[in-house]
Amino acid sequence: MLARLSLLCIALSDAVLSSEQRFELEVPRVTAAELLQNRTLLSGHWPYVLLDEAASWQALWKWTPERLVERIPQEWVDFYPENMLHAGKKPYLFRYADALGHFQQPSAHSRYMQLRLSLQGWTELEKDLGKMPEVFYTEAEWMPRCMTKADGSLDTTAVDNFYR
After folding, report:
1. Distance between CA atoms of 116 and 78, rounded to whole angstroms?
2. How large is the average pLDDT for residues 141-163?
3. CA distances from 15 to 19, 90, 109 (A)
4. 3-class secondary structure, 116
5. Cβ–Cβ under 8 Å, residues 55 and 71
6. Where are the alpha helices (DSSP H) in 21-109?
7. Residue 10 three-state SS
8. What is the maximum span of the chain, computed from C-alpha positions, in angstroms?
């Protein structure tokens, strides 16, 4: 499974994209069968786009901005009303339910919004994901060994912080 799900809402203007950003990295697009034959990509050290695996996921139609307000209204959002073009422009911190209205207002600037999913939010949204290819791993495989209290029990505070 994906190591961590980050939901990003990005709106870049063509002017910014064409004049200031050049994408030089070629990221291969592979099917699950092709991935299993590629030792380089299986190493986990190189990015790739996995094709045709999410077509049946409920998340594709359930994760609309409005439906997410119903499902994860309590989650925190970093909202950048003028995108992240200038390093000095810091985000505003809102609950998702409050941030969406700001994000959807007409603006002369492109905007950026990033969810800070808590463990509770991730658990809610994870229900809408389908089965991941076997070469993916989940946090459940390593987290109980790494995020523990002195008595050996799972440190749920550390786990929740990981998801944010």
Report:
1. 7
2. 83
3. 6, 22, 11
4. strand
5. no
6. 32-36, 39-42, 59-62, 65-71, 96-104
7. strand
8. 55
**H/E stretch holding 17:** helix 14-20
Q: Is the pTM of this model over 0.70?
A: no
Tokens at residue 43, please?
């190493």
What's the one-letter identity of residue 123?
T
- Any idea of the CA torsion for 100, 61, 134, 163, to the nearest 10 degrees? 20
Residue in this structure with the two tokens 């944010």, named with its chain if needed = 164
Tens of pLDDT, residue by residue over 39-75, are 999 988 899 999 988 888 889 899 999 999 999 999 9
Helix (H), strand (E) at residue 160: helix 156-163
Q: Which two tokens stand for residue 35?
A: 């991935």
